[in-house]
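Crash report, auto-generated. Payload:
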Amino acid sequence: MTLSIKRVWFAWVLFVIATGLIIHASWIPLKAGLAQVLLDIAWTQTAQTGEAAKPWPWADHSAVAKLYVPSHNIVQVVLSGDSGAVLAFAPGENIEAARAEGAARIISGHRDTHFRFLQYLQAGDEMQLETANGIARYRMLASKVVDSTTTTLNPTALPDGLILVTCYPFDALTAGGSERYVVFAELVPQSETI
Amino acid sequence: MNSLVKAIYRPRMIAILALVYSIGTHAAPESVQLSDITRGSLLSRDEFGDIHELPLMKTDVDTEVTGQLARTTITQHFQNTSDNWIEALYLFPLAHDAAVDQMQLHVGDRVIEGQIQEKEQAKATFEKAKEEGKQAALVEQDRPNIFSTSVANIPPRGEVKVTLEYQQGVLWRDGEFSLRIPMAITPRFAASQPAEFKLESSSSFLDGWSILPEQRPQVLPIEEVDNTPDNATSIELTLRPGFELAEIGSIFHTVDVQPNQDGSYSVKLVDGDVRADRDFVLTWHADNNRQPTAAFFSESTKRGDYGLLTLMPPTVEGWTTPAREVIFVVDTSGSMSGQSIEAAREALMEGLNGLTKDDTFNIIEFNSHSFPLFKQPEPAFGSSYRAARDFVRQLEARDGTEMLDALDIALSMPGDSTKLQQVIFITDGSVTNEDQLFAKIHKDLGSRRLFTVGIGSAPNAYFMEEAAQMGRGTFTYVADLSTSESAMKALFKKISQPALTDIRVVGYGVSDITPARIPDLYAGEPLSVAMKLAPGIKRLTIKGRRGNTDWHHTAVIDSVGLNAGIGVDWARKMIVQWQRAGYKGLAQDKVREEVLSLALEHHLVSPYTSLVAVDVTPVRPQTDALKQKTVPPTRPHGLEIRLAKGATGFELSLLLGLMLLITALVLMRQPKEV
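Recovered output after restart:
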């Protein structure tokens, strides 16, 4: 009898932990999705009024661009910065690369939320990036798996291009691996059609 | 029942972990070790982060060998075969004693020059140039002797021309001189060891690609093409050996050798014979000689006149050796216990074996006190010799180390100055009063030679090398018992037959001789001495003692080529000499002042100066024609972005949560079934 009570008690503890874990885990993709909706509303407002609108009252990130991948029905607002705090809400653009003149733009996103679609991209796919300066079009060149502990990106080697970064492998269960999946895209001149 | 719970979920946890690990341990990417850089190479990284070797189009080598000094000017042309603006890293392998002192880069229309500046100023220059968006790079020589500099803004299809000047000593081994010029093609970048090093630029000061000693660059090549046309390498070499040559040749390449009127040789690589898989190695031998040979070279520069004396021992051994008076001083302090004292005993025995009947000797044992075996040196035979062997056998390690007393006894012992007086100091060198000891040696050594033998895993090599240098002797390191015998045999064989002793350079207008105390000349070890000369000096005399007779050689001073590097060699030796003086207690301000002025004047990298690459492209007047030319925007060089983290890992948490939930539910249901 005492054994049985102990077991039930243990089962309840497990149940509480399990529920906590599930809520915590579910919150991540939920937050990622919800943030996009709010960011998109703010982005539209900003575009209409010309004043920077906050997606939610305590937001401290600014939206810098909107990424379109027509072939995969992707529309995502991109925030400035690629720290973990930013990437929880949206893909983030590397500030250093953004400031460098003539360098490729580098946008990172989580492989299990926003940038899950990266694995389906193929060379030749079109992407668009809408910024305050208008819409720029890009054509995907290649993708590559690299080890982040031994490799750094050199955005000046791909002038005015676009580089998308996410974790790899896509189906890994744990986060924090050293491998990255990198997509390279070149700028398509305005006159040219894809 | 708890154990049941464990039994349910534990194996699954293990299974999940195993899955994660199998995903995590991917094969390491292919990598290239720095040792794979076997010739001057220009490496660039493409947008995928992969590293390519830019095709080497042409190499010109011009070398002047003067005595044991070699100065090389190498010019290499590379081509950017891509349609992108790229940044690259130039690497050049150097011998361990070689140093680059001149550098010039031509990148497209730009000219970048290596300038020697005081470290602080070099840093300021670098930061300023960076702010102005100009090209600048600090040039570094990495410890494993790879010279590296970054080359930014290489235009599409553009050419890069690198010119380096470096200086090194020629290699001497078993009677053969040799000089190696690195030109072998980098071995194929096969998957070798996991990444051991990586290209790194975390520091803003060392912008561009720099190789940090701890983190070697990882090079990820995808293709490797050698576009070097067959006739694109030229090598021209002038050899002034300073002695009669018996033989000269190149190991892997066909060379054309022309003797000149002045005793020098012109060596040329025969066209079309470039073995691209091999370094160029030139070797030469001295003709058989029963006498020491002295050669004197001088150089006139705008910085002054400099001289280089090279002395070759006779190549035929077996000359009469002078009688010696050898005093062994052996450390038997507590720190020598174990293997060390055994090695010391072994070394002493070997030393006693090396004595002849004409020699005299003594042994001084010291720990906290000093115990000389005899009051004065005794002949090396008969009862004294036997007593010495017994004395050595019973040596045990104990107590402290009081070296000064022992040194005092050794240096004040009545002796026979007509003999060659040698003091052989066997110790692990665990001393703290180095300054006192140096002062003692300096004051009382007289005509004696001091040889130090370091025993054990960590002898105080600084003290022993320095003491040996002051005492015109050598330092021998004996790691353990197994190497003791052979090291000692070699040492005693050598010091039993000096070819020339008490060497002096005598002449009006000769100054700043380095090394200041010229060591003796021994069989199998050529010697080289640098000095400063007053302008107009016509001749000087080299004096010495050969056995028991005087020896001298008169050198007529006749300036040689302008680019032999004799002045540079002198300055490098003087810098080392000042640094040594600094270790021995000379005020650091004084050392800094002297080293800095030498380094700046002679264009040398030193502890106080850096080689900084500065864009010296002349500013062209703006003309309409130029305005129309599209100028690509200046790209910030060295921009390297770390890859952001790209996963939340929520799926694992979700999975774990679900598993725990199922477990909980199973546990809640089970009691009803019991």
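Post-recovery validation: Chain B has four domains: 2-27+646-673, 34-284+609-614, 288-318+500-602, 324-496.
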